[in-house]
Amino acid sequence: MAPPVVVVGVIGGPFGVKGWVHVNSYTEPPANLLSYEPWRLKRGDRWEIVDVEVRTHGNGLVARIEGLDDRNVAAEWRGTAIGVEAAALTAPGKDEYYWRDLQGLQVVNDSGDDLGRVDRLFSTPAHDVMAVTDDVGERLIPFVREVVVAVDQDGGRVVVAWEPDWV
Fold first, then answer.
1. pTM for this structure?
2. CATH assignment of 99-160, given 3.40.50.10330, 1.10.1280.10, 2.30.30.240, 3.10.290.10?
3. What whole-number distance in Å separates Cα of residue 161 and Cα of residue 167?
């Protein structure tokens, strides 16, 4: 069985004419992506290990993927997920979480009301947000200390200071 893979970025548009591509890193800071290897690229339903040369360019990253030597071919890789084995990631610190570990957890408020499950998380300029879904719809709940009372990964739930009628 293949080891679990975590998406850590995505291939952006071409960079130059020799097959280099922009890289959109999901790591914080983005340059942390340079420390993970080997990279795996999602092609169809498979993760393929690739040899890459990666370097910083301005505030971003660019990469040359072995076998891509042409701008037009590189353009076809735009949107391709970049993954690494989950075991390559460092353990999160106290009160830190990988988003993948929060997805699927039950969300309840501090009164015990069931608000749904964490469907996904995303960043905004102000803070991270949990998209919590139930059979009625979706709630967007800020993932900030003032709202998130507790995260109990072993118990499979997140406790929040949030009322059921708050959308």
1. 0.73
2. 2.30.30.240
3. 13
